[in-house]
Design a protein that fits this description.
By secondary structure, this protein is of the alpha+beta class. The strands form 13 sheets. A six-stranded antiparallel β-sheet has the order 3-2-4-10-7-8. It has a six-stranded parallel β-sheet with strand order 27-26-25-24-23-32. Strands 1-12-5-9 form a four-stranded antiparallel β-sheet, with no helix packed on it. Residues 38-192 form the Beta-mannosidase-like galactose-binding domain.
Length: 908
């Protein structure tokens, strides 16, 4: 189970649960009797998972089961549990629910205790009037989320949104209704613990340890402690009155409080008091010469232990956590290019490298600590230093943020409002504020938390998406600056509520109203040279070379699709003949025209034709597919798609990183999946790392070099016109040092034939890089003067690596290059924990990758997407419990390269 921090006074109700349907007539006829009688339920859990475990439905992810199981979202579900309870003498007994999904009524012993309207909140009710000594019965009745959202839309009116459900009408995660990568499994459940919290005197409602570092190096920790007092409600006992610190059982008096900070030869304790009649106190701890926390790649991640205690000996409430000390700022001052979004930690500008994160399962209760560890390892080992928690998902579990603290992964945290207009009626305002207050208080202690973001794409939606403003118009409202009445669409939350709450509760972090976001008034919200941007025309309607047209100051969302690993895909897609446009294949492709876009994207890179070529059907209608888009071998299609994803994102990120420091961040969409699907993920739902992930390990390296097109000084002087870009006419080696240590060395750049003959060479003997800096080295005309680009490459090699890898630049696309189709020989030998795969190239081998899951679905490999020059060898380790034929790991359909996608397309 996923770690959720609960007080020691809390007892979870985890056993004895039953699930029933209150409107079984909407379920398939053969299931109605069972659903009326009830089936065993797991808490935390969801209705769909219980149905699957009871054998009433098939795997929701398999085949086209998604369509057949839509009835689940129409059912009113009731979770019921019976439990024994006995009064232990505490003053308070609260029923606490840490996660209810979503619109629910909660009853104890047949009496309604409370109701919920928000997936993202914790609910607490004083249960004393309802509890009985001995047997008790708790029930949670969930209204249909589909019906609830539809009813709210009829009541409030239409507010524009993406996807097909009105997810913006209730406070349920947007993605659970389906997304362009997500399955539609809008169901209900108790997705986090529920139970009884028994306490006396006072309890700690929240702790917000806010940090700062003074110029002299002193760490300052302001611990904001908020308490709830037990209050009157029962006759005080003698034990209450004899509390050694004079704190009465109802907690009305002054409450002693202490904060203890330890670690790194520090052991400090500060005492204070929550005054009588008050519910909050601030205790300050100062640590001279504090050790600073750094993002991954810039330094270490020291964390100090913090213990907070409130109340007397008999009624003491405790909180345990950790803090890291660092300063944080963001630079958005206008410069010659526009306005940057550059994060600065400890006065050092940081280049953000990483991914967007979506919920790691369509069923959030199923995401345990092991899945979190796997996901964070995917970030760490890809050389990422930042992750964005996307606003259509969930506020993740405590362990997720703890891991980011420990590993130096900066967190960009969205509030959960995405791709829609959100009502600004009193009910929604109250829910969003309560949700935001809770989550700000919960997450503010995490040193990894770097950016709070108000919404995902909602400013762009308002200003640019067709029909958005028209749908908000209302004749009965006063005219605005556009001359017409308009319903509130959510800007209240982004421009008023969230800034006010952060100023009150967490003033030490960066805040953006929306992503993307420009910082200059009256400019395009998604302008590349101003603020943050999302780049989606590349996937939707442009060749990936279009990345070169942008100068992103901070690209926090961009991506390219590919299928999951072969074993993941074939475990859920069972079309009689596997085909990109098979019925079950398309169930697992949620993007509009997704597999057509994959085919178009390959043109001129892996297949013939141009991106915008069309064909015509027999009836004269246009067909975006052309004959050469169709692969004879589905395994070749699968490999070509995965390679294309890696090549497209590598092309984009290498361009962005070559622009440092103008570019200050690149966050790829996305690192993970929430089910087995064709998507933008770098790691599929089953944990298999796609070629993109291996490419990102290289292009996210803290020390990084790339060869990029540039404008020579002569061309700039001769062809420059005001407001018009000069086309690049040469190439340059761009060397980037995103570390806090300087580098000095030399680089040699050679133009070689694919067979290995050196045709030209240039050496840069004195290359010096200061900390967090870059240098651009223009290449000589003799080096870039390709005689035959289809048979030549550039190879840039550092004399002393020290973190830098060799650079290979291909001036021609795969389809054009004179590649040997079978450039590799390989051997496989058994070793501890698996096998050693040794691969040798007898010819130039571009982007070598081993699909180990085709042999063993549980296998993994420590390397991938390597390019080998003739005569070079790479040795990879395959982790596997054992297979019948180890040599299968070297089989042609397992050990792949870009070379083997070469075809005689003219003959085809």
């Amino acid at each position: 189970m996923t770690t959720i921090t609960t007080p020691r006074t809390f007892s979870a109700l985890e056993s004895g649960w039953t699930l029933t349907a209150l409107n079984p007539e909407l379920a398939p006829e053969e299931l109605r009797e069972r659903l009326t009688a009830g089936i065993p339920a797991t808490v935390p859990g969801e209705a769909t998972i219980d149905l699957f475990h009871a054998g009433l439905i098939d795997d929701p992810f398999d085949g086209d089961n998604e369509t057949r199981q839509q009835w689940i979202g129409d059912i009113v579900w009731r979770f019921t549990c019976e439990f024994d309870w006995h009064d232990d003498g505490n003053a308070r007994h609260d029923l606490v629910a840490y996660g209810l999904d979503t619109v629910a009524y909660v009853a104890l012993n047949g009496i309604i205790v409370g109701e919920t309207r928000n997936f993202h909140r914790t609910y607490r009710w004083d249960a004393r009037p309802y509890l009985r000594d001995g047997a008790n019965r708790l029930s949670v009745t969930f209204l249909s989320p589909v019906a609830s959202s539809d009813d709210a839309e009829r009541r409030r009116g239409y507010y524009p949104h993406t996807e097909h459900h009105a997810f913006n009408q209730i406070r349920k995660p947007s993605y659970s209704f389906g997304w362009d990568w997500g399955i539609d499994v809008a169901n209900a459940g108790i997705w986090r613990p529920i139970g009884i919290d028994s306490w006396s005197g006072a309890r700690i409602a929240s702790v917000r340890p806010l940090v700062d570092v003074r110029p002299d190096g002193t760490g300052v920790l302001d611990v904001h402690v908020e308490v709830e007092r037990a209050g009157r409600g029962r006759v005080m006992t003698v034990a209450d009155a004899l509390d050694l610190n004079g704190v009465t059982g109802d907690g009305r008096g002054a409450l002693p409080a202490t904060v203890t900070v330890g670690g790194y030869d520090v052991n400090l304790e500060v005492a204070g008091v929550v005054e009588e009649g008050c519910d909050e106190a601030v205790l300050t701890v100062e640590i001279p010469e504090v050790r600073r926390w750094w993002p991954r790649g810039y330094g270490e991640q020291p964390l100090y232990d913090v213990h907070v205690a409130v109340g007397g000996i008999a009624t003491e409430a405790e909180w345990h956590g950790h803090v890291g000390f660092r300063t944080l700022a963001v630079d958005t001052r206008a410069d010659m290019t526009g306005r940057p979004f550059r994060i600065t930690v400890n006065d050092v500008p940081v280049h953000a490298r990483g991914y967007n994160w979506i919920p790691d399962s369509a069923f959030p209760s199923q995401v345990d600590d092991a899945r979190y560890r796997r996901g964070i390892a995917d970030l760490i080992e890809s050389n990422s230093n930042m992750v964005r928690v996307w606003g259509g998902g969930i506020y993740e579990a405590d362990e997720f943020y703890d891991m980011c603290d420990r590993e130096g992964i900066m967190v960009w945290q969205d509030f959960m409002l995405a791709c829609a207009a959100y009502p600004e009626d009193a009910e929604t305002k109250a829910e969003v504020e309560a949700e935001a207050r809770e989550q700000i208080a919960r997450l503010s202690s995490h040193v990894s938390l770097t950016v709070w973001n108000g919404s995902n794409e909602n400013y762009v939606a308002y200003s640019e998406w067709w029909g958005f403003k028209q749908a908000l118009r209302a004749d009965d409202l006063p005219a605005n600056e556009h001359g017409y009445g308009e319903k509130g669409w959510g800007d209240y939350y982004y421009s008023e509520l969230f800034p006010a709450l952060l100023a009150e509760l967490d003033p030490v972090h960066v805040y953006l109203p929306s992503s993307p976001m420009s910082f200059t008034q009256f400019t395009d919200a998604n302008k590349d040279v101003d603020g943050t941007m999302h780049i989606w025309d590349v996937w939707n309607r442009q060749d990936y070379r279009t990345y070169l047209d942008y100068t992103p100051r901070f690209a926090d969302e961009f991506g390219y699709q590919a299928p999951p690993a072969w074993s993941t895909l074939t475990s859920v897609v069972h079309d009689e003949k596997l085909d990109p446009f098979g019925a079950q294949m398309l169930v697992h492709q949620k993007a509009s025209g997704g597999n057509v876009k994959l085919a178009r994207g390959m043109r001129s890179h892996l297949t013939p034709g141009r991106f915008d070529d069309v064909s015509y059907n027999a009836d004269g209608t246009r067909d975006w597919l052309i004959p050469t888009d169709r692969w004879d071998d589905i395994e070749d299609w699968h490999w070509a798609c995965q390679l294309q994803q890696a090549q497209a994102i590598r092309f984009g990120v290498e361009h962005m990183r070559s622009l440092e420091p103008v570019n200050a961040g690149a966050l790829i969409w996305q690192i993970n999946d929430d089910w087995p699907v064709v998507s933008w993920a770098a790691v599929d739902y089953n944990g298999h790392r796609k070629p993109l992930w291996y490419a990102s390990r290289d292009f996210f390296a803290p020390r990084f070099a790339t060869i990029q097109p540039r404008v020579s000084a002569q061309a700039q002087a001769d062809l420059s016109w005001e407001g018009k870009k000069v086309k690049p006419d040469t190439l340059a080696l761009v060397v980037v040092n995103d570390t806090c240590s300087p580098w000095h060395g030399s680089w040699t750049v050679e133009r070689r034939t694919l067979a290995g003959e050196t045709l030209a060479s240039q050496t840069f003997d004195d290359v010096t890089l200061e900390a967090t800096s870059s240098v651009t080295l223009t290449l000589d005309a003799s080096v870039v003067a390709f005689r035959d680009a289809t048979d030549e490459i550039l190879v840039a090699t550092p004399a002393s690596g020290d973190g830098f890898a060799r650079v290979i630049h291909n001036p021609a696309e795969v389809i054009e290059q004179k590649l040997d189709r079978t450039p590799l020989t390989a051997t496989v030998e058994a070793t501890d924990g698996g096998y050693t795969l040794t691969v040798t190239a007898h010819a130039y081998a571009r982007d070598v990758f081993c699909m180990v899951d085709k042999v063993d679905a549980a296998a993994s490999i420590d390397g991938g997407l390597a390019t080998l020059l003739p005569g070079e060898t790479v040795v990879w380790h395959i982790a596997s419990d054992g297979v019948d034929d180890p040599q299968a790991f070297a089989a042609p359909n397992v050990l792949r390269s870009a070379n083997d996608l070469k075809r005689d397309w003219a003959a085809a």
